[in-house]
Amino acid sequence: MQHLIRNIIVESPSKVGNLGLVTSAIGAAEGDIGDIKLIKSGPLTTVRDISVTCRDEVHLETVIANIEAIGNGVEIHAVTDDVLKAHEGGKIAMKSTIDVRSLGDLQRVYTPGVASVCLEIEKHPEQAKYFTSIGKSVAIVTDGTAILGLGNIGSVAGMPVMEGKSVLLDQFVGLSGVPILLDTSDPDQVVETVKHIHQGFGAILLEDIGSPHCFEIEERLKAELPIPVMHDDQHGTAVVTLAAVLNACRATGVDPTKATVGQIGLGAAGLAIVRMLLAYGVKDVYGIDRQPAAIERLHNYGGKSKETLDELMNDCDIVIATTGVEGLIKPEMVRKGQIILALSNPNPEIQPAEAIKAGAAFAADGRSVNNVVGFPGIFRGALDAEAKQITYPMLIAAAEAIVSHTRRGELIPTPLDPALHLVVARAVEEAAAKEKQSQ
Ligand SMILES: NC(=O)C1=CN([C@@H]2O[C@H](COP(=O)(O)OP(=O)(O)OC[C@H]3O[C@@H](n4cnc5c(N)ncnc54)[C@H](O)[C@@H]3O)[C@@H](O)[C@H]2O)C=CC1
Ligand SMILES: CC(=O)C(=O)O
Ligand SMILES: [Mg+2]
């Protein structure tokens, strides 16, 4: 496991080279350094806040001991948990977009003024998208059955993930994501519940709903609701994975449609990745899963299966894994020149550095090849186009937009670039408009 993030506050004499001593000590203990913030720079001493990812508490103790062993005035002041701190009080809030300072404001925003807007919407329901926030709101619906790769830990335990998705929708594309935590995973009840609440939203994002029930839930909601519905773990992930595959093929001079691709794990993410690759025109897509029913679904969509993990690893140029099983791919299974996308969160099937060391030409994990690169722009584009569905042409347009926005040497662009989400949103909107015209 590699997901214990701690902030180590270190004071050292203000002398060139001391930061290097500290980072070397952390590196020698295999701590993974993130942000380094300068807290105080005085004539005598300097204080820095160093974010370090460790495997577990025991590993953290080793990192701390290594820093303390430097001596010569290097001291640890505190070890804090900034991840937990960032979650105090939650990460989202419903805020107003209008100030109420006078009686006039009150009467405009609330009664009696508001009544005339209600009556206008009653007469012309389509006006709701101009006079309410509905068109900018996305319900983030989970039943808590496949929270990241942590399994069925329940909706409430999954709330930090849903709040995270909401933060990303807000900050990257200006949409309001509202978590809806279900206490049922029965498809009939989920579909009924979402149908009963859908009219308050412009779109529905299904999140971390496990397979196979996620397939039925999404298909039924898509068929029965007049607004876009997308299970992000399926199609958001598939879009970003297709973009990563296209970029890797471009860099290695491989024709993606002729590459042999292996998908390990055919759940929500894996089956959608297979479907997306086939829709793009990749002919040789193989899969494996420990569940026979998952293999049957693979065959139904036109994918081919392999008998064992070893066979898949041996035969495929590009390997993608979404099993939730940390360390499933062993370095000795990696073939020279292979492209490996080990996408399980929070811990990949193989660490990218390990895969590269074992001979892979490209390797990435679920931190970089992550649906955050796609879903904000996909939802923004679909809502801007007033699309009723998110279709394959819209998803492929999103993947191609991501590819067009990738700089040389990158496998996938950073989601921190606001221009990326804009480019994806425009591509999706244009694809939706084209589909409308052709109908
Ligand atoms: N990087 C990204 O953007 C995303 C990553 N993921 C990650 O993918 C993983 C799976 O997520 P979902 O598809 O939603 O879960 P899921 O539960 O729907 O699918 C997991 C599948 O893997 C199969 N599996 C488990 N162990 C296996 C093994 N040893 N060999 C072969 N197959 C095996 C299971 O039978 C199941 O079909 C999670 O860790 C999640 O964090 C999911 C969505 C997005
Ligand atoms: C990124 C994401 O949606 C997942 O790991 O489930
Ligand atoms: Mg997810």
TrEMBL record:
Gene3D superfamilies: Malic enzyme, N-terminal domain, NAD(P)-binding Rossmann-like Domain. GO terms for molecular function: malic enzyme activity; metal ion binding; NAD binding; oxidoreductase activity, acting on the CH-OH group of donors, NAD or NADP as acceptor. The keyword Repeat does not apply. Keywords: Metal-binding, Oxidoreductase. SUPFAM superfamilies: Aminoacid dehydrogenase-like, N-terminal domain, NAD(P)-binding Rossmann-fold domains. Its cofactor is Mg(2+); Mn(2+). Residues 89-222 form the Malic enzyme N-terminal domain. (S)-malate binds at N345, N370. PROSITE patterns: MALIC_ENZYMES. It comes from the Bacteria. Belongs to the malic enzymes family. This is NAD-dependent malic enzyme 1. The lineage of its organism: Bacteria, Bacillati, Bacillota, Bacilli, Bacillales.
